[in-house]
Amino acid sequence: PGRSLVMAWRAVSGIQGVAQRFGGATRGVVGRAVADAPARATSTLGVLGTRQQRGRKWNSQPPLWYLGTAAGGCGAVWAAMETSRQSRAACAAAPGVKVRMALCQIGVTADKPRNIQHAKAALKKAAAGGAQMISLPECWNSPYAVDCFPVYAEPVPAVGGTADPKVSPSAAMVIQAAKEHGVFIVGGSIPEVEVQKDGKKNVYNTSITVDPKGQVVAKHRKMHLFDIDVPGKITFRESDTLTAGDQCTYFDTPFGRVGVAICYDIRFPELSAQMRRVGCDILVFPGAFNMTTGPAHWTLLQRARAVDEQVFVVTVSPARSPDPKDYQAWGHSSVISPWGDVLVEADSGDEIVFCDMDLDKIADFRSSIPTEQQKRNDLYKLNWKSKV
C-alpha cells in the first residue's frame, strides 16, 4: 500500500501542475473543474496517509478502495483536460490560449432602425475578420441623452430568455447575429424598459451577452449612474430617467471567464475587484466617455483597472458624431493588457479594431507580482452585499 500511495501521489502532483495552468481564475468552467478534481483526489490520499501514519488497520475499506477513489479523481481530471483541449482547439488557440476580440466603434443617429442595421453590418464584418468575441459600444441604438432613453427603450430578455423582434428589435438582432456568426457578442448597451408590478416603468442602461448558440448568457444593468457636473464643461444626470442596476455580471467561455460593466462603472475599483474575485480574466466596458473626461481619464482608468486586477480590459465607445450639437463621444476604443500596455486603440470615427489577447500571459503577470496573495485580508476585505 505504501508504494502504491507514493505512485498515486506522484500522479496527482503532476496533474496539480496542469491544474494550475488551466484552472482557477485563469480559465473557464472546464478549467475550474480541472483545478478542483486533484484536490478531491489529494483529500482521499491524505486520508490514506493518515491511516498509515497512525498504524491503523485497513478494516473500514481495503487499500485498493482508497487508491481506486484517488484514481477516479485523477480520471475525472484527465477527462476534463481532454474536454478543455478540445474547447481550446475550437477557439483556434494555437500556440497558447488566444482570443481574437473585435471592438465595433460605430456611429449613432436618431434613427433607431438605421442604428440597428449599422450595428448588424459591423458585427458581420467583425465576424468575417475572425473575431471570436465582439463588443458593441454603449447606447448604440439611441442618442446618448437622458430624454432619449425612455423613447428608445425596449424590453431586454433575461439570461436564457428570447427577444421578440417586433418589441425588442435591438436585442433580437444581437441574438440572431451571435447565432448566425457563431461568436460571443457583448451587446454594448441599450436603454431597457421594464414594467413593475405597480405599473411603473423603470428604464435601465443594459447590456446583454449572447453565446455562439444564440443564448443570452449574461445581463448587466449599469450599476453606477453617470451624474456629474464639471463647471463650465459638462453636466449630465442619467438618474433623471434611468434606474441603477445591482449585479456583478460575468459569463463563461472556453477561453476564460469574462466580466461586463458599463462606462461609469469603471471608475469604481470595487466592482472590478469583485469581478476578478469571481475569476474573470477579461473585463469588458462598453462606454461613452465625453470630450472632457475622455482625454483626461479614459485610458488612465483602463490601465488602472487592468494593472490593479491583472486582467485584460476592453472598452468600446461609440464613434464621435460629426454633428457638434450631438453628444460627443471620445471614441478611442481600446484593449489594455494586465501589464498596462495599450495593445490596440481606435481613433474617433467609425472603425472596427481587432486584438489577439494572449491569455496564457495572465498567469505570468500574476505570478511575477502576486498581489492577490499579498492582500492584507486580516486588515481589510471586500464585502460584496448584492447579487453575484
Provide the fold topology:
Blueprint: H1 2-22, H2 29-53, H3 63-90, E1 98-105, H4 112-128, E2 133-135, H5 149-152, H6 169-181, E3 184-186, E4 190-195, E5 201-210, E6 216-221, E7 227-230, E8 234-237, E9 249-253, E10 256-260, H7 269-277, E11 280-286, H8 293-309, E12 312-316, E13 334-336, E14 342-345, E15 351-358, H9 360-368, H10 371-374
Parallel strand pairs: 1-2, 2-3, 10-11, 11-12
Antiparallel strand pairs: 1-15, 3-5, 4-5, 5-6, 7-8, 9-10, 12-13, 13-14
Helix pairs in contact: 1-2, 1-3, 2-3, 4-6
Oligomer: single chain
Number of helices: 10
Helix content: 25-40%
In N-to-C order, the SSE pattern is HHHEHEHHEEEEEEEEHEHEEEEHH
Largest sheet: 7 strands, mixed
> What does the average pLDDT come to?
83
Head-to-tail CA distance between termini? 45 Å
- What's the Cα radius of gyration? 24 Å
Give the percentage of residues in beta strands.
Answer: 15-25%
What would you call the structural class? Answer: alpha/beta
Ranges where pLDDT stays below 50 over 5 or more residues in a row are: 1-61, 63-71, 73-95
Query: What is the number of beta strands?
Result: 15
